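Entries read sequence, tokenised fold; example below:

***
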Amino acid sequence: MKYIFSILCISVILYAFPLNEKTLMDISRTYGYYQGQLYTLNTIQKKYPDLANQVFVAKTKFNLSFGDVTQHVDLIMDKYPEWKSIKKSIVANTRKKINLDGLTHRQAVNFITAVEQRAKGKVESPVLETLLILKPDYKKNPEKEFYDGFKKRYQCNDFKKSKGVDFLIDIPMSWASKKANRPNIVRKFISNNGHGPAIAMVLVKNIPDGKTISESDIKNAMNKNDMETMLPPNAILKGYGFIKLEGLPGYWQRFTITVQRLKQKLTIETLSYTFFYKNKLIQIQFQVANLHNSKLNKIFQKYESLFDSIINSFVLTDVYRRLM
């Protein structure tokens, strides 16, 4: 029965929000977006003094949500000598593209309203994700983004890959949602818009011969030997226990493993939740990876509370409907 329990997946991820061409482009675009917004609001305030208070409120709401974007960008980019000239060029080009000569009072009011909506997260991609990634509070405490309401609900609609299991799960807005090549992975989500060290995956597998797993079956397997047997080779078990999710029995495991991809060795810390519904095994895995093993525990601790929030948002729709 032990092989039934195990579909643990090691996803080799080599993300660390690198300042490559793509991320530099996103940062530059976001900086220009913010400067254009600031320029427009300042112009409105000068042209229509009666809207000064509304401009102030809109600026305040946006800054409460995303902070001082100029300052956040400078913290990352000031290490590059060319940034000062690039920054001036972005500001100059942004202002050239924005023609406010014919701006009416009604258009000004509409723009202020739009900025207030942006403060609630109604911003185009990838600007929104970049704004969230840049915010120091969220970088320090990823769970805060989730609890501030910057989260999106993923609803499974790939029933072939999910084997008919319908579910909902909440993910931070700054995380990228990606398809997975492996057959049992329904969806994976990666921090920092696909470039971060953290990943979440939802997996579903049919249990052989349509067998169902009972609560007593799982509790009988709650020992170190059985839990280690379920892990990939060379994995180090760090903790385990019995759980219930959506009223369904299961177990959790935490383990560390070092894998090699080409010339690079990568250490991965995994927290896995496995539970059973009818003849299906459902698993939600959280992983953090780092090329430097000494920092791995610190990275995991930073994301651990967020992992708890994500797993608690999981809804198995069929179970929920039966309870209605």
Observations:
- The chain has two domains: 2-16+142-323, 21-140.
